[in-house]
Amino acid sequence: MERKVKMEKAFRRRRHYLIKKKFQLKYVGVILGVMFLGALISGYTIYYNAWLLLGEKLANVYPQGRLLHIFRSVNIRLALNLFFVSIFCIGIAIFTSHKVAGPIYRMTKFLGNVTSGDYSQRIRLRKHDDLKGLAEAINGLVDKLEREKKS
């Protein structure tokens, strides 16, 4: 009984997050692309309008060199924030894509076994994996094929 529990825990543990690299990196690229496009449009709009309004008022208060220093420090801070947010988003995208790529990998491997005539195994997915409905449908199909083979 204890061994079964250990096997179940080992089954649920993620060993590698990049299982289907091409698929997952494409997924990450799409997520980042949409994120950057939205951030670029909204950020530029806010940034441009804020500096347009603030620039006139600050030009009367600060000397020209000081105002340029403020603009540069704001730009550097925005670039650093964008970098750290990007790293965070890449991590989230890889983790999320793993919930799809992992099941696809398992199903592909499983169907290869079925093609070679092994009907004994079933697809088992982790608790939070996606595509469970597809896995159940494939398992049902293999059950039916196994029954037909026996009769």
How are the elements arranged and paired?
Elements: H1 2-12, H2 21-61, H3 64-115, H4 132-150
Description of the structure:
The mean pLDDT is 80. The protein is built from 4 helices and no strands. 81% of the residues lie in helices and 0% in strands. It is mostly helical and 151 residues long. It has one domain.
Mean pLDDT: 80
Structural class: mainly alpha
Unreliable residue stretches = none
Instruction: Indicate the multimeric state.
Output: single chain
Level of helix content? over 70%
Termini separation: 34 Å
Radius of gyration: 26 Å
Order of helices and strands: HHHH
Shape: rod-shaped
What is the β-strand count?
0
Number of helices: 4
The structural domain count equals: 1
- Which range does the strand content fall in? under 5%
Largest sheet composition? none
Comma- or semicolon-separated keywords:
151 residues; single chain; 4 helices; mainly alpha
Could you provide a short overview of the structure?
81% of the residues lie in helices and 0% in strands. It has four helices and no strands.
